[in-house]
Write a structure and sequence with these properties.
With 137 residues, the chain is an alpha+beta fold. It has helices at residues 25-32, 60-89, 97-121, 123-126; strands spanning 6-11, 38-45, 48-54, 90-91, 94-95, 128-134. The longest helix is centred in the middle third of the chain and has 30 residues, at 60-89.
């Protein structure tokens, strides 16, 4: 008999200047969506706690397709930004590590915000509840 887990919590630590970020495709494929007994999945980050909860209308296959597709779109978009930042701040004769790090941190944080909005947008269509409980800084 499988033990009921209900809730799974883990952390998303990041370097200074970056959000811990929401869930990755790996979080969903190997955790939240993989196990039927995990109803709520949480990630604790410096900006707050992200939570996703399966409703009785959870559509596992469609949900995983959605998050993979949306993550691929964002990866393509932000990989181009990271490449531009490398050319701008990391080329020979124009290496400025601090500016490069800050530009990439801004880009990463913007990607996390877009990803957060993607997860909010899919709630009713794929049968889950998603939230961020912001931390007071």
């Amino acid at each position: 008999m499988e033990e009921q887990a209900d809730l799974f919590t883990h952390i998303h630590p990041r370097e200074s200047g970056r959000f811990g970020g929401s869930f990755s495709v790996d979080d969903f494929e190997n955790g939240f969506a993989k196990y039927d007994n995990i109803l709520t999945y949480r990630a604790v980050a410096k900006e707050g706690t992200y939570s996703i909860h399966k409703t009785t209308k959870f559509k596992k296959k469609q949900f995983l397709e959605y998050v993979r597709r949306q993550n691929e779109k964002l990866d393509t978009k932000y990989d181009a930004i990271y490449k531009t930042n490398k050319q701008k701040y990391g080329s020979v004769g124009n290496y400025d590590y601090d500016k490069w790090r800050k530009a990439n941190s801004r880009a990463f944080n913007n990607k996390m915000i877009e990803l957060h909005n993607v997860y909010l947008a899919g709630q009713s269509k794929y049968g889950y509840k998603y939230s961020l409980e912001k931390r007071d800084n």
